[in-house]
Amino acid sequence: MASHHILLLILTSVLLLETSASPSPCAFPAIFNFGDSNSDTGGLSAAFGPAPPPHGETFFGAPVGRYCDGRLIIDFIAQGLGLPFLSAYLDSVATNFSHGANFATAGSTILRQNTTLFQTGYSPFSLDVQSWQFAQFKSRSQIAYKKGKYQRYTFSSAELSPCDDSVYGQGGRFFWIHNTGPFGCLPYILDRFPIRAPEVDHVGCGAPFNDVAQLFNAKLKETVAQLRKDLPQAVFTYVDVYAVKYSLISQAKKHNFEHPLVACCGHGGKYNYNIHWGCGSKVIVNGTEVLVGKACQDPLKRICWDGVHYTEAANEWVYDQIVEGAFSDPPIPLRMACQRQNQ
Question: Which of 69, 234, 238, 330 is deepest in the core (most CB within 10 A)?
Fold first, then answer.
């Protein structure tokens, strides 16, 4: 039976292959992911140098290109669908693209930035560049398949207008879209930007920053609604990750977490975050290299890993809340994301 692709856009995009047209759970033999450090499984590390220890220590036992102590939400998505972890498209060592590829890189933005990684920390692999990489991956893998070298990916070949040069134009038809989280609760925001007392909510988060996140999410949801009209052959699922993450942070104790606004891995200050001495940072003391960006004693009880990203435990908790569709519009589970609903 002809295969189709599902694009799981997690503010990041994940493209999955669907092999059944029945109303039964979808069969996804591959995932293609687009995004930033929240779903980067090694892209930036391959391009600009590895994430140092103690990244990766909880699950992998060593750094594996993720800005986390272990698995990311995208890893749990892959596992939940019975697939292996995604290899980064930019990684040329020990990669396996037989079940998809990951185009996400840490520091990536939606719009291209007129700057460099070394000046501002923004990745050069913005969302449009990632979509170009996907197009190249598709064309080159099809050529390789004809030569008998690689897994074949069959993309939807429905009629496309000449202007469709996006992932949809390359055959993506099913989209799982995560909105952005409450970044006003992240240590790097709370430490770096002065927030007046009236601007701090009851949890301790920076309300103005969360207001911006919610405004973005409202516009994103409007855009998704419009895309459903503009691209009737596609299926879009919008997932309210903001609500899930804010619930976790605001009710940390209830969910068996502690210190929700303090980074597990970092160095000093109220939030254990310092922009100059991040997780894994080292200094030279009397000629000896000393680790100052250390991990906390029990990452499994913490929500924020390094001041910017979530811990494996938090990522797993978020995944568990969203996988069955409780925070989705329409309210369908991930395994049914290939099914067209009345949207």
Answer: 69
